[in-house]
Amino acid sequence: MQPTPYNYGSFAGVKTQILKLHSGFFVLVLLLSGSKIFAQQPDTANIFRLPVQLDSFVVRSGFDINAFIRRVRADTTFYKAFKSMRFVPYTAKNNIEVFGKHNNVIASLKSRTKQNIANRCRSTTITEEQTTGDFYRHNGDYRYYTSELFAFLFLTKEPVCNETDIVAGTMDVATKGQMEKSEFQLKQLIFNPGSKVVGIPFMAARESIFDEGESEKYDFKVKQEVYEGMDCFVFSILPKPGYERKTMYNELTTWFRKSDFSIVARNYSLSYATLVYDFDVRMRVRTIETGGKLYPTYISYDGNWHIFTKKRERVKFTIEVTY
What we know:
- This protein has helices at residues 13-22, 45-48, 56-60, 65-74, 77-84, 145-154, 178-191, and strands spanning 52-54, 90-99, 105-118, 121-133, 160-161, 218-227, 230-239, 249-257, 263-273, 277-290, 293-307, 313-322.
- By secondary structure, the protein is α+β, with helices and mostly antiparallel strands.
- The relative contact order is 0.20.
C-alpha cells in the first residue's frame, strides 16, 4: 500500500499548481516519487551551435563534445540511483532547520532512521528523534511544508511493496492526477535539466537552458577533475556576466565518471520570482557505489520560498545515508 499523500491545502487551479511546485522542499519531492520519468530524446541542434569551453586536457584528449552533450541530456543514471535506493536497507542521519526573519533557528528536527527491506516491501523505523521550537503542531501534525514532504519522501507510515526500479518509458500525463503531473514536471527539471517543462505557471520558459532564447544567457564549460578518487568530466552551466538576474539556473554542475559517464555528484542553484511566488533553492547531491550500483549518500537543501497567502519559509536540510 502506498502512503497517503499529505493534504497541501485547498487551493484551486493555478494556486494549487504553484503550491505543489514551489513548497519549501519542492526539489526533493520528485527524487523518490514512484511514477516514471520521461525518457527524453532531445533535439540537440541548438546546443551544438553554442561555444563550449574546454580545458587544455580535454582538448588534447580528442573529446567529442557532440556525443558528450547527447549523453548529458539523455542521462538516466542519476534517476536510477534514487530509484535503487528504495530496494536496499540503509540508515539515515537527518537534520532540518527552519529559520525566522532574523535568520535565527525557530524550529528544528534531528533524527536517525532506518529503512528495512523484507518480502519486496520497504518500511521505516525512527530510531532517534529530537525537535525544538514549533516543529510539530499541538495535534502532532507537521507545521512546515518541508517537514511534511520530508516525511512523505523518507518515512513510510505502512510498508510499501512491489515497487520497480525501471526508469525508461513515458508517462501519459493527460490521464494522471494533478499531483502526478506536478511530480512529472519537477522530475524533468532535476533529472533532465534544461528540458522544456509544459504547465509550470509564469515560468516563461526560463527552465529551457539549452533552447534558443535562453542558451545565449549561459556559459557552458567542460573540464577534467579527480573527484573522490574518480576521474571525472565536470560539466558546468553558469549565467554569463550581466544575465544573473535574467536566468533561472544560477548554477548547474555535474560530475560524470569517465569510465561509464555515471553521475557521481551534482550541484543545483535555482531562483525565480513572479508577483505570485518566488524561490531561491540550492541543492547538492552526492552518490556512492555499493555492490556495483550507485546510490545517493548525501543530499543538502537550502531553500527560501514564498507564495502569496502563505508565510515565507526558509529551511535547510541535510540527509546522510549509509548502506
